[in-house]
Amino acid sequence: MAPCRPPLKRILQAALFCAGLAALSAPIASRAQTAEDLPTVLVADTLKIESRNRLIASGSVEIVQGERRLTALRVIYDRTTDKITLEGPLTLQDGTEVSVLADAGELDAALQNGLLTGARMVFDQQLQLAAQSLDRVGGRYTQLAQVAATSCRVCATDATPLWQIRARRVLHDQTERQLYFEDATLLVKDVPLLWVPRLRLPDPTLKRASGFLIPELRQNSTLGFGVVVPYFFKLGDHRDLTLRPYIATHTKTLEWRYRQAFTNGEINFDGAISRDGILPADTRLWLNGGGHFDLLGGWKLDFDIEATSDKAYPVEYSFNAKDRLDSELAVSRVTRDSYTRAG
Fold first, then answer.
1. Using CA of residue 192, residue 194, residue 198, residue 204, what is the dihedral sign?
2. What range does the domain containing 248 cover?
3. pTM of the predicted model over 0.85
4. Integer angstrom CA distances of residue 6 from 16, 33, 79
5. Distance CA 287, CA 320 (A)
């Protein structure tokens, strides 16, 4: 195996090549620590210099820098054109959050710009974007052409995914961690359901950001087949609201969740409103929530609320399978010698 520390002065080109490869995680989300801060190691079955201008690493090429890792079948650096050619299959990884897989690619020496073909971009093992090509622009943006986005729970080979979003173009902003879709169509079992000219989604590595979330499919013997397209609203650092429109064969439902944290406690509420074929003349309602607060003197306040327009509603929609709904308000205090509760 040939390490990235050639003994001959003439092969110092290889060391420079490795330094350039420190940025090879450019198609992946950047981190606060720059590439130059970390050592880079290149390992390959063979490492060869052709004249003064061409370095070839081939055979199980692996480049590691901190948590970043590149594997490829062959890597070629041409000093004349200042280009790096990657022959795959190749994989780029940055920890466990984002990885890129591709058939081949060509990047500039700084690896700020370039093109990967037959590419897939995988976010936090939750969302994958399969694209005809992946183009790195300006060290911040990744453009993907002819994209199919779907869950990372991939079906069997050649099977149709349960859901996918097809788009003519997707732009990933690695600084803002946002995905921008153009000419996007939502398909369920390969059947188009919704088309939008533009769509913005937070990438799954961003834990709290307003935007659409990954769609969900549901199959219910009573309600039929349906799809949920959630939208998350960040209402500040301590509050958020999620709306989940649910359209199925026999229902139109809006589900919601509200959460808020306080200095001395928190509240969480879930609810839903439906018009369906089960009770077509009625609007059906469901509310479930509660909270917990620390009071003065060691006292605690707890409350739970459960309410519905009809007892069958939470069961038919799998909100709650209990026979009896309970609401409670209680204050309590625990000391070294006693436990007091009222409610």
1. negative
2. 209-343
3. no
4. 11, 27, 18
5. 10
Residue closest to 22 by CA, chosen among 67, 59, 60:
67
Cα 105 to Cα 138: distance, rounded to the nearest angstrom: 17
pLDDT of residue 153: 57
List phi, psi (to 5°) of 312: -75, -25
Query: What span, in angstroms and rounded, lies between the C-alpha atoms of 150 and 148?
Result: 7
Shared domain for 203 and 245, answered yes or no, is: no
Residues in the chain, overall count: 343
Say how many domains are in the chain. Answer: 3
Using alpha carbons only, give the angle 267, 210, 204 rounded to the nearest 5 degrees: 100
Tell me, yes or no, whether 280 and 325 share the same domain.
yes
> Taking a C-beta distance cutoff of 8 angstroms, is the pair 196, 182 a contact?
no
The domain boundary residue, chosen from 207, 230, 247: 207
Regions of the chain short of the pLDDT cut 50: 1-13, 15-16, 19-33, 35-36, 154-157
Give the N- to C-terminal CA distance of the chain in Å, as an integer.
Answer: 72
Residues 122 and 22 in one domain: no
